[in-house]
Amino acid sequence: MGDPRGFLKVRHRHELAERPVEERIKDWNDVHAESGLQPWTKEQAARCMDCGTPFCMSGCPLGNIIPEWNDLVRMGQWQEAYDRLSMTNNFPEVTGRICPALCESACVLGIHQPPTMIKNDECTIIDQAWDLKYVKPLPPERTSDQTVAVVGSGPAGLACAQQLTRAGHTVVVYERDDEVGGLMRYGIPNFKLEKGLLDRRVAQMEAEGTRFRTNVEVGKDISWDELQSRYDAVVVAIGSTVPRDMKLPGRELDGIHFAMEFLPDATRRIYGKKPVHDLTAKDKHVVIIGGGDTGSDCLGTSIRQGAKDVTVLQIMPQEPTSRPDSQPWPTFARLYQKTSSMEEGGEYVYNTDSVNFVGTPEQEAKVSIETGTQTEGFVADEHGHVTGLKVVSVAPGDDGPFTRQPGTERVLPADLVLISVGFLHPDTDTLLEQLPVELDGRGNVARDDSYATSRDGVFVCGDAGRGQSLVVWAIAEGRSCAAAVDRYLTGATELPAPIVAS
Ligand code: FAD
Ligand code: SF4
């Protein structure tokens, strides 16, 4: 298998071209200029060394059979490549676009050359498969008389539902939003993941027999205990949606919002839906606190909405964007990644902590720079609006790696502040009242290593059990949880379980 000299003939990666910045910030379409089969796709796939121990596969939570599909891509055997890919991944059109590609960071070729283009191969295979009409509904040959309710339609819930439907069970997915997809629908912006990709997958699932109930919040519109009495098993796939707050003086001012109040509105507007919080960055000084994936998505969205300027604050130092010569081996996937939004404008400010919000007029708390505690001053009046954020530089020092540096305080102008510092745990208020399950020490729904909660017949997968994570982990958990539910219902299972719960 493979071209044994492929990696010697082509030593570079052909990174997927993006559209020019000035063009793409005028619309909400995918930032890439290229997609699907390209003139260079096969020679890039031929760089795979077909390693005896393919570290790429163990790097992928789904256990994707990467060397096999790399070779099938090299030979242009799209049906076979699609057959291999769909054995392990329910939604490769998503991971092929937005996964940080843990597999590429684990690729052995990466020790002495840039790694193979696994993520792009995945995307090309599935795009070819849709174009060539290989992707068809796979309804079960036999149906069981068992029923499952899946609560939450993010990647974990959808993967779980698709596996269980194909195993013959009657599966109903409940979603409190008006559309299916979880964070793939209203969190991740359209310029990273166009929503038509989700629609055609949902249509496939419907044709297989999965039923969807949108605009239904379990716990309010139907209680959790009623759900359990109606179904043979319940899967909790509600994500990790409670945001971490920045409880700084002045937090009460208007104009300070969580990222997930801002991002969904942008997508809702693109698709002609009514925004929920009616937020826009247009003509505003925007400050984004937190420079991870979510912060970067807020940046790209603010730029497209016509912000006056955007500052992204990060307490951490800037990460290197290329691997130093002293560190040649594969490493943590996200370390050297730049996002497309970073090239589009705005300013990243590193080594900087937030002190307090400043409001109108002259409303500013007096805060001790060293301790961050408020020493005197106002509590912002409820009608005030944010005008700025006081920040201070940090450096390694007596108080640890982020010791505040007196004398470096300054105020960044801000009419819109977006808090993007992560998520704490799932929203379990109604679940705990109506169907008590145990939580773990972080507030996630506790489970054993086969996704069973403390309540018989109730399972949990995705961010709700694992904590805030990635789409690829959510799909892997959804698949594994489906296998556990199938075994619970029937006593045995042939469904694959790529990972145990952690
Ligand atoms: P979610 O996708 O959060 O879905 C949970 C669903 O449950 C939601 O639709 C919610 O409405 C629904 N729900 C909750 N409670 C109820 C209830 N009581 N009744 C009915 N429905 C309910 N990961 C990547 O791999 N790559 C990226 O580029 C990336 N970008 C991201 C950008 C942003 C802005 C965010 C916030 C996250 C990003 N992630 C990314 C992380 C990724 O989206 C999540 O890890 C993943 O979506 C988790 O999947 P999930 O199915 O567990 O939960
Ligand atoms: Fe190919 Fe890299 Fe996997 Fe080796 S580790 S089989 S080179 S993709």
Any overview of this molecule?
The protein has three domains: 126 residues, Fumarate Reductase Iron-sulfur Protein, Chain B, domain 2; 162 residues, 3-Layer(bba) Sandwich (FAD/NAD(P)-binding domain); 176 residues, FAD/NAD(P)-binding domain, CATH 3.50.50.60. It has 18 helices and 19 strands. The strands form five sheets. It has a five-stranded parallel sheet, with helices on both faces. Strands 6-17-7-8-9 form a five-stranded parallel sheet. Iron/sulfur cluster (SF4) binds next to α4 and α5.
CATH superfamily of the largest domain: FAD/NAD(P)-binding domain
Q: Report the C-alpha radius of gyration, rounded.
A: 24 Å
Query: Which residues form runs of ≥5 with pLDDT under 50?
Result: 376-381
**Beta-strand fraction estimate:** 15-25%
List the ligand species.
Answer: flavin-adenine dinucleotide, iron/sulfur cluster
> How are the strands of the largest sheet arranged?
3-2-1-4-19
Overall geometry: globular
How many helices? The count is: 18
User: Any guess at the CATH architecture of the largest domain?
Assistant: 3-Layer(bba) Sandwich
Number of strands: 19
Task: Sum up the structure in keywords.
binds iron/sulfur cluster; 3 domains; 502 residues; FAD/NAD(P)-binding domain; binds flavin-adenine dinucleotide; Fumarate Reductase Iron-sulfur Protein, Chain B, domain 2; 18 helices; 5-stranded parallel sheet; alpha/beta
